Amino acid sequence: MPLFCKECNGRRLPIAFPEERDALWLCEKCKNFVNIKDEIIREWTDKEIEENKVKLENFNNNVTIEKTPEIKRRSGVN
Ligand SMILES: [Zn+2]
Predict the structure, then answer these.
(1) Residues 18-57: tens digit of each pLDDT
(2) Could you tell me the distance, in angstroms and rounded to a whole number, from the CA of residue 6 to the centre of ligand 1?
(3) pLDDT of residue 78
(4) Which residues contact 12 (CB under 8 A, 6 or more apart)?
(5) pTM value?
């Protein structure tokens, strides 16, 4: 698993993309993605960096308001 970046030893984050079968692993420091085999797929684009910032800000602002959907448990199943 490409959990750590080969270049900076930083922690990579798994990012899911609807168009990709598997999640890609992002190094926020080196700004690139690798696949599950630790092969560099592409750069982290400026647009995505911007979007990520906005998402984080929204997340921090809404974290107390936003409700997470409740996980439904079926009774009678372990
Ligand atoms: Zn790195």
Answers:
(1) 988 899 999 999 999 999 999 999 999 999 999 999 999 9
(2) 7
(3) 65
(4) 2, 3, 4, 5, 25, 26, 27, 34
(5) 0.70
Tell me the CA distances in angstroms from 50 to 38, 70, 71, one per residue in order: 25, 30, 32
Q: Distance, CA 33 to ligand 1 centroid (Å)?
A: 9
Instruction: Determine the distance separating the centroid of ligand 1 and the alpha carbon of 7, expressed in angstroms.
Output: 5
Q: Distance, CA 11 to ligand 1 centroid (Å)?
A: 8
**Residue in this structure with the two tokens 């750590």, named with its chain if needed:** 4
Residue type, 74: R
Are the beta carbons of 10 and 28 closer than 8 angstroms? yes
User: What's residue 5's pLDDT?
Assistant: 97
CA of 21 to the centre of ligand 1 (A): 23
CA of 67 to the centre of ligand 1 (A): 33
